[in-house]
Amino acid sequence: MTDNKQDQPKTTSQIERTDFQAKQKYLKQRASSNITRRQVPHEKDILRRKKVIKWTKWVLPILALFLLGSIAIWPEIDRMINTNKEVVKQLSRIKVESGTMIGATFHGLDSSERPYTITSSKVIQKSNNSDMIRLADPKADILLQNNSWIMVTANKGIYMQHLQNLNLYENVVLYRDDGLFMYSDIADIALKDSIVTANDWIHAEGPFGQLDAQAYFLDMHTNVAQFKGPGRLILNDDKNSSPPSQPSKTSE
């Protein structure tokens, strides 16, 4: 009787329980083999992360403000860009080719630290003598004492930059702010000493009258003029029209 019980087949519930236990064991083994333990972060890593978060809280708002500010000032930036384009356009008018420059300006100071300016429509500088500059249509503006000034123009000129000498020729015209005009074919100006000389016939007109002479020497700062004769002098009858700073005249 006992043997018959042992030989009976297993029921369906027993088979399912056995399979479930086997699968459960298999899954536990597989899960334990695939799971990796997470490492505990070190204290240095935690501090570094805190610093990153802290800096992010400051950097992001600053970056946002910078972007908003860029949008706000963009019209001004656009205006500056257009202005720079205009400056480049103006500079393009100045051409430098083979020692020739169109539109040149020279600035300097005399021995009394008073400024002078020389402008020219065209300058030519030779490579063998860099100190000598040839000028076309030169004009010299010279500041004198008591804020008075003198302007000298000519058709051509030579500017010795190191010596601060300006040699003018062809239709030289000297004008002083008190109304004095002097016309000659040549004139030499020592810009450092503020002296103008001309060893040629000159014609002068001004509040004092008219004067023709063979040569002249003019100290622009001391307001002293010397003329070489023979010449001709015509004075105005109205003495009140003569300025108190009328230049002295001598003839030989």
Automatic annotation (TrEMBL):
This is LPS export ABC transporter periplasmic protein LptC. InterPro entries: LipoPS_assembly_LptC-rel (IPR010664). The keyword Translocase does not apply. The chain crosses the membrane at residues 58-75. The keyword Transmembrane applies. It comes from Commensalibacter papalotli (ex Servin-Garciduenas et al. 2014). Residues 241-252 have a biased composition (Polar residues). Residues 233-252 are annotated as: Disordered. Keywords: Membrane, Transmembrane, Transmembrane helix. Pfam families: LptC.
